[in-house]
Design a protein that fits this description.
Helix content is about 55%, strand content about 10%. It contains eleven helices and six strands. The strands form three sheets. A two-stranded antiparallel ribbon has the order 1-2. A two-stranded antiparallel ribbon has the order 3-4. Strands 5-6 form a two-stranded antiparallel ribbon.
């Protein structure tokens, strides 16, 4: 905590003339930094120093965030924030967005380890997020707003899913994706006026079939004679994988299989591939709905 903040105090004085007062020092109530110490065995040389320092910096942040996430949920306080990190899917790297210091020492004798170009410590003011904010044709934006209603929920959920992947909230991102696909199919059925179609209702409840098979194959095959697995088998397979993990999250609160044991970067890329596949599925369902509306207009 910096000196000015640590020396700040707040005095509450009674207005009834009794002279009673209560003094609270900020340093007794506020925590503005966390110190993480990692004891590790590594072989440091000029060729691997930078990659090692980045790897263990990310590990230290993971440890701190594990503590903060538990504190946040136990206290039930949304105002406790984790250390902000972002993942760049194009560059495939992580960035720490808050000021931080990394210092390396030899545990045997306390001597500094010159990991950072001849120095044993580095101070960073934190990365500044400068993401692509997108672009859109004015006509498309006008068409979207023309009905005076909220944007499609399935699309909004996928935008939220992408935001969650960028900030490493992979469980939340997966739930957003799964919900987006389900919402898209339900809208497809509803807008076609097929909610009461017994074949559709039976397909959605068919035992022994995966969610992706029921929603993206069986239902579209009934209504349009098309299947997502036939249209794009690779994307269909990823959506199926995503939904299996969604079920593991819903029942156990964690990813299943070997996903938790994957490297953080590999896990990010896997969930990103699910997002790409879910976008593909939702866009495909929307194209079926549009084609059906066009056919109706022609008739």
């Amino acid at each position: 905590m910096d000196r000015s903040l640590s020396e700040t105090s707040v005095t509450l004085t009674s207005l009834d003339g009794s002279g009673a007062s209560l003094v609270r020092h900020v340093r007794d109530l506020a925590l503005d930094r966390i110190n993480v110490q990692l004891d590790i065995d590594v072989d440091i040389n000029p060729d691997n120093a930078e990659s090692l320092s980045q790897f263990w910096l990310q590990r230290a942040v993971q440890v701190a965030n594990f503590y903060l996430e538990h504190y946040r949920t136990v206290a039930r306080s949304p105002f406790v924030r984790k250390i902000s990190r972002r993942w760049h899917p194009i560059e495939k790297r992580f960035a720490v967005n808050v000021p931080h210091t990394a210092t390396w020492f030899d545990l045997e004798n306390g001597s500094p380890l010159k990991v950072f170009n001849g120095f044993n410590a580095v101070l960073s003011s934190g990365a500044i997020s400068s993401p692509e904010t997108g672009f859109v044709a004015v006509a498309a934006l006008r068409d979207s707003m023309a009905g005076g209603v909220e944007p499609p929920l399935s699309v909004a959920l996928l935008v939220d899913a992408e935001a969650a992947v960028h900030v490493l909230s992979l469980r939340e991102a997966t739930l957003y994706m799964a919900t987006a696909a389900e919402v898209a199919v339900k809208r497809y059925v509803s807008d076609r006026g097929e909610d009461s179609n017994p074949d559709v209702r039976s397909a959605l409840k068919r035992a022994g079939e995966s969610f992706a098979k029921r929603h993206l194959d069986l239902v579209p095959e009934i209504l349009d004679g098309n299947t997502f697995s036939g249209e794009n088998p690779a994307m269909f397979s990823l959506v199926e994988q995503m939904y299996r993990q969604r079920n593991d999250l819903m029942h156990g609160g964690a990813f299943g299989g070997d996903i938790e044991s994957m490297s953080e970067a590999d896990r990010q890329e896997l969930v990103w591939s699910w997002l790409v596949a879910t976008w593909s599925a939702v866009d495909w369902i929307a194209s079926l709905l549009d084609s059906g509306e066009s056919s109706s207009d022609d008739n």
